[in-house]
Design brief:
The chain has about 100 residues and is mostly beta strands. The protein has one domain: Beta Barrel (OB fold (Dihydrolipoamide Acetyltransferase, E2P)), CATH 2.40.50. Strands 1-3-4-6-5 form a five-stranded mixed beta barrel. The chain is globular and about 40 Å long.
Length: about 100
């Protein structure tokens, strides 16, 4: 498992367990004639560090604050000087435990 504190920009093959601590409103975009949705959320791991995780399309609706998630083969990009994680094309994001209702 990777810790958030160890993640570097442009790093791939990131495996991480974390909890979603905040989530922005999804925004819609159009690219190559296809509509999509994107939103950012903050996740926190056992080290207490936080990082931005980008959710795409249906993932925007499938994840909520308080969910525990597992990222497999994720990628860390950089946007405006801030590190951002994403599952990307080859990675997988899954819900380990849903928030308590």
């Amino acid at each position: 498992m990777t810790l958030i504190s160890e993640i570097q920009p442009r790093q791939g093959k990131i495996d991480l367990d974390a909890e979603i601590v905040s989530k922005d409103e999804p925004r819609e975009f159009e690219k190559f004639g296809n509509k999509g949705k994107v939103c950012n959320c903050k996740i926190k791991d056992s080290s207490g560090e936080e990082i931005t995780l980008t959710l795409w399309n249906e993932d925007c609706d499938n994840y909520s604050v308080g969910d525990k998630v597992k990222l497999t083969n994720g990628y860390c990009g950089e946007f405006q000087g801030e590190k951002q994680l994403t599952a990307g094309k080859f990675g997988k994001l899954e819900k380990v435990e849903a928030q308590e209702a």
